Amino acid sequence: MRRDEIPHQPQVAPRPRKWAVLAVMCASLFLVGIDLTVLHVALPTLAEELMPGASALLWIVDVYSLTVAALLVTCGTLGDRFGRKRMVLAGFAVFGTASALAAVSGTTAQLIGARVLLGVGAAMIMASTVAIIRWVFTDGRERMVAIGVWTAAHSAGAAVGPILGGALVERWWWGAVFLINVPIVGVALLAGAWLIPESRDPAPRRWNAADAVISIAGLGLAVYAVKQAGEHPSPMAAITGAAGLALLAAFVRRQRRSANPLLDVSLFADRRFTAATVCVLACFGCYTALLFFLTQSFQLAGGLGPFQAGLALTPLAVANALGAAAAPWPARRWGGRVTVVCALGAFGG
């Protein structure tokens, strides 16, 4: 991501069927959101069958989002260079394959590996969908609405995940929470191949493999250290965490010195950009954590079944989706600052 990409306007006239393209983008992000949380209600059943340790159980849940975060920038860069449609369709294929592998996993290691592959597919999808939306919707107001709906799709997927997961676990087995993705991805793949227009960055950035490896290794080591410290605090966990932080610091230093950075860290000099990033990280992190703990509390402490636990989150799912879809309206009426401050106040209250 570069500073000069923020005000970028598409150079191609808007394509027909742009709302159909948005529907495909939203469907894909809805699936990505579902897989972020669908496993939550299945964890008690899964733990009884696979018997993972406490740390392994956390890796089953978190390795998906960690992989997405680690690969998002890299996949975005590659999509700009080789084609965003190509990247999204490849992401669909990887996501569907990984879902099938996760469904038939017989060991903890196999499931963690499948979840990593799911994260790879999700990163490929997410990295290019917003660029495709910006390319298709040339009108600023329409683009704002489209991005609001696109965001709502992800939020709705994350909130619907526990409900869908609960229904599938009670009716079949825990692997069904992944297997349900396969036919949906197949339809999205066919629709995307027909509807999504191809687009590329006319002046793509050079992809630096070394920077990508450093960022992924640094993030992975830091997260691994936090998880190990939570389960078994040890000097090795501290050393691993220090190594991860050192790699992340080296990554930032390399980006500041590079003429073609993988991530333009000078963007964070803009207070609005930094504030928006911090707000998104804080709210989304708290939101997904809330979904996780509520589903566990409802089942383990409240005695609810998987489907009942997921259903108890319906008000939260509806409110989240409506809020994301309606966000452009108060932003236009009262401005972004007032809207964000009020939203943060409501979220914290």
TrEMBL record:
**Classification via Gene3D superfamilies:** MFS general substrate transporter like domains, Multidrug resistance protein D
Lipid bilayer topology: Multi-pass membrane protein
GO CC terms on record? plasma membrane
Which residue ranges traverse the bilayer? 20-43, 55-75, 87-106, 112-137, 144-166, 172-196, 208-226, 232-252, 273-295, 307-327
| InterPro entries, per the entry | MFS, MFS_dom, MFS_trans_sf
**Quick one: where is this thing mainly located?**
membrane
Q: Where in the cell is it found?
A: Cell membrane
Q: Which superkingdom, per the lineage?
A: Bacteria
The entry lists its GO molecular-function terms as: transmembrane transporter activity
Domain Major facilitator superfamily (MFS) profile per the UniProt entry, residue ranges: 21-349
Is Cell membrane among this UniProt entry's keywords?
Answer: yes
- Which keywords does this Swiss-Prot/TrEMBL entry list? Cell membrane, Membrane, Transmembrane, Transmembrane helix, Transport
PANTHER family referenced in this protein's UniProt entry, alphabetically = MAJOR FACILITATOR SUPERFAMILY MULTIDRUG TRANSPORTER MFSC (PTHR42718), METHYL VIOLOGEN RESISTANCE PROTEIN SMVA (PTHR42718:SF47)
Q: Which protein are we looking at?
A: MFS transporter
User: Which lineage is the organism of this entry classified under, starting from the top rank?
Assistant: Bacteria, Bacillati, Actinomycetota, Actinomycetes, Streptosporangiales
